[in-house]
Design brief:
The complex is a heterodimer of chains A (about 290) and B (about 450). Chain A has about 290 residues and is an alpha/beta fold. Helix content of chain A is about 35%, strand content about 10%. Chain A has 2 domains: about 150 residues, NADH:ubiquinone oxidoreductase-like, 20kDa subunit (Rossmann fold, 3-Layer(aba) Sandwich), CATH 3.40.50.700; about 90 residues, no CATH class. The chains are: A alpha/beta (about 290), B alpha+beta (about 450). The interface between A and B is large, with 77 and 75 residues.
Chain lengths: ~290, ~450
């Protein structure tokens, strides 16, 4: 039995009853929704306080809405997905995009630079069986988004913080700072300055705990650009001892389609790989 | 949204389960019956294609390792392990024995995480009649919590070695991006000790289940290595005498495109479907199981059911959980870190090709490389796209045995059967081979 909801506060959308939560996906790897299940110790505690009414990967109970909070994974890449996200937006109070695919297009957005018909007929013997759009785009290109969790995949800590904040009716604390700040706090020696490693830390939003530098690698930007990130500025610095093409390939990963990264890739003439979709191999006969 | 359409028309029957739940990714089942005989059983995969084989063109193999992980959030290690071994074979790189052990430990972590997820969050609630693990937890909270702790132990291994549980960052051609220290690995001991108790309890629980009876003979295919239960290397073997090098996958198997699926289907070149995954491995590699897992297999007399009854795949996963936890403990106990994270290597032109055992079965990758070691063309064949045809064949066999039941029960039983293969649809869809040809 659901408890009788108390009257709604007049001035904010604080959750006032057992909120109806949905988790849906578009073009993606399932890793961000899996992060919800990876909350492990807290998963059942959260489930005690909300109604998970739609989460196809986890439950056979289904709902087409309405949702108080809808977590959306994946980028929009087929005609059906364009219609579905519009429908979902109309039945959702707080729409939250989770992960690089939903917030920036994901790795599959690299096809946005390519000739889609050429790619599709190259990879499918029967391209007519497959319906897909020429682009894979962020959810925010199609509908209004109320909140976003970044990362490829999202951080379990940020997800926990977000859910806790929603249940408490407060604003989630998701700092917008560069990975460099986290790196300094962890006392990690700068891999870019001391090791000459290509690192996108200065333009990338924190949240991972400076993971790659902690493992001796440069940041590859999977949390996407922080606010007012100067992609071309970092690119100019990196180009002191790298070709523009090699700099662009570092940006051309999971958040490639985000404007600050896209500008760098465009300036270099696109991501690696032939943009007409051709390869050394002949396309198959249909 | 979850509309099940069953339209009986005389002896004809149309069963249409749209949006399968508790599977990874988006798919449907369409069964057509005419005059009491199954005319077609289609596992329809409508997950949006992401064109990975195109996305890796022009990339170095280190970039490929980061990119192919994104094919699947549940088994990123499998994609990374296959790519890194393919690259090292192509470039003639020999890695440190400690690196070999760490990679095996990393894979154990992924098997534990993936199998615990499927058993406790997807399959067990299903077999007990609950719509989800959250519903099951209201009646058996300790059981679900135990399963989640087991899953956490697997995730902890991946996170300790790779930085995070999903899309780890440390796997590089030549080794790891830095030395993984002894204290980092030793810190896994407590979780793994608890996990060992949990997997033994899991076996007892699973052996007590009574899934629906459905026996059939299937062609089972898995890797087999001389010295160890298969993960990172081995030859491709089957229960009907196949024994080929992993790099020769394309000589014995082929992929076809069918109109109802965005994933290519694989068949033997003789046109027969085949089944990969835990049931195949436990059957074909039983003698290589860790003694603890081998003992559990015998104690509960599970081998025959695992080989012949798809609904008993949960037992194969439970046996492999015992194996993976026991072996992880052995590796942790014996771990001596290498002096350097990775060994140096130089790229060269050629073919980088390899197969490993993902949690859901054999994963094959082949990359054509130019003189700079950049990808020219790629083929990636995940286990679920290979299992599709076998799943459809089993559905067509099973359906006639339950057609006299009420409609809701038919759909439930068919959906349950599909779930028993642990299909990872997100994996399956993204592989669109450049050479495949379907003549119709």
């Amino acid at each position: 039995m659901l408890p009788v909801p108390p009257p709604a506060p007049a001035d904010r959308q604080a959750v006032r009853h057992r909120p109806r939560i949905g988790v849906v996906k578009f073009a993606s790897c399932d890793g961000c929704q899996l992060t919800l299940l990876d909350l492990e110790d807290d998963l059942l505690a959260i489930a005690d306080r909300v109604d998970i009414v739609e989460f196809a990967e986890a439950t056979s109970r289904r709902s087409s809405g309405p949702f108080d909070i809808l977590f959306v994974e994946g980028s929009i890449s087929t005609p059906e997905q364009v219609e579905e996200i519009l429908r979902l937006r109309a039945v959702t109070t707080t729409l939250v995009t989770i992960g690089a695919c939903a917030t920036a297009g994901g790795i599959q957005a690299l096809r946005n630079w390519a000739d889609h018909d050429a790619v599709r007929s190259l990879v499918y013997p029967h391209p007519e069986y497959v319906e897909s759009l020429a682009t894979a785009t962020p959810v925010a290109d199609h509908v209004a988004v109320d909140a976003e969790l970044r990362g490829c995949p999202i951080s379990p800590d940020q997800l926990r913080e977000f859910v806790t904040a929603v249940l408490a009716g407060r604003r989630a604390n998701l700092p917008d700072e560069a990975v460099c700040a986290e790196c300094k706090r962890r006392g990690i020696v700068c891999v870019a300055v001391t090791g000459g490693v290509t690192c996108l830390g200065p333009v990338t939003r924190s949240g991972c705990g400076a993971l790659c530098p902690a493992f001796g690698r440069g940041c590859y930007g999977c949390f996407g650009p922080r606010e007012s990130a100067n992609g071309p500025g970092l690119a100019t610095w990196l180009e002191r001892d790298r070709t523009p093409t090699d700099v662009a390939r570092a940006f051309a990963l999971f958040d490639a389609w985000s404007p600050p990264f896209r500008r760098v890739i465009d300036a270099a003439g696109g991501p690696p790989g032939p943009i007409d979709g051709s390869t050394a191999k002949e396309p198959p006969d249909a | 949204m979850h509309d099940t359409v069953i339209a009986p028309g005389g002896a004809d029957l149309d069963v249409d389960v749209r949006n399968l739940t508790r599977v990874e990714g988006e798919g449907s089942l369409h069964l057509r019956v005419s005059d009491g005989a199954v005319e077609s059983a289609h596992l329809e995969i409508f997950e949006a294609p992401r064109y990975f084989e195109r996305l890796v063109v022009g990339r170095s193999m280190d970039e490929v390792i980061d990119i192919v992980a994104r094919i699947c959030g549940i088994c990123p290690v499998a994609y990374q392990m296959t790519a890194v071994h393919a690259a090292e074979a192509a470039f003639g790189v020999t890695v440190d024995p400690a690196t070999v052990a760490l990679r095996r430990l990393l894979y154990c972590g992924e098997w534990i995480e993936s199998h615990a997820l499927h058993i406790y969050l997807l399959h067990l609630p299903d077999l007990l009649g609950y719509p989800s693990a959250i519903d099951l937890a209201q009646h058996a909270r300790a059981t679900v919590e135990g399963g989640l702790r087991l899953k956490r132990a697997g995730n902890a291994i991946v996170a300790r070695i790779g930085g995070r549980a999903i899309h780890p960052v440390s796997v590089r051609v030549g080794g790891f991006s830095r030395v993984i220290r002894r204290d980092e690995i030793a810190s896994l001991r407590a979780d793994l000790a608890e996990a060992l108790d949990l997997v033994e309890a899991t076996i007892e629980l699973v052996a007590s289940l009574q899934p629906p009876v459905f026996r059939r003979e299937a062609r089972l295919v898995a890797l087999r290595a001389p010295d160890e239960y298969p993960m990172n290397h081995g030859r491709i073997v089957s229960n009907d005498g196949l024994d080929i090098a992993a790099v020769d996958w394309e000589s014995m198997f082929e992929e076809r495109q069918v109109p109802w699926s965005n994933a290519l289907q694989a068949f033997g070149r003789d046109g027969r479907p085949y089944l990969l995954g835990p049931s195949s491995r436990v059957t074909l590699d039983a003698d290589l199981l860790h003694p603890r897992a081998a003992a559990a297999l015998v104690r509960h007399d599970l081998a025959d059911r695992i080989a012949n009854e798809p609904n008993w795949s949960i037992a194969a996963r439970a046996i492999e959980l015992v194996h993976a936890v026991a072996e992880a403990i052995d590796i942790v106990e014996g771990y001596e870190p290498p002096t350097v994270g990775g060994v140096p290597w130089t790229p060269r032109e050629g073919i980088a090709s390899w197969a490993t055992e993902a949690p859901r079965g054999l994963l094959f990758q082949r990359f054509g490389l130019d003189a700079d070691g950049r990808v020219v063309d790629a083929r990636i064949v995940p286990p679920t796209s290979q299992n599709q045809a076998a799943i459809e064949a089993d559905l067509a066999l099973f359906a006639p045995t339950v057609l006299d039941r009420p409609h809701a029960e038919i759909t439930h039983l068919l959906e349950q059967l599909i779930r028993s293969y642990d299909p990872c649809i997100s994996c399956a869809t993204h592989f669109l081979d450049l050479q495949v040809e379907e003549t119709s």
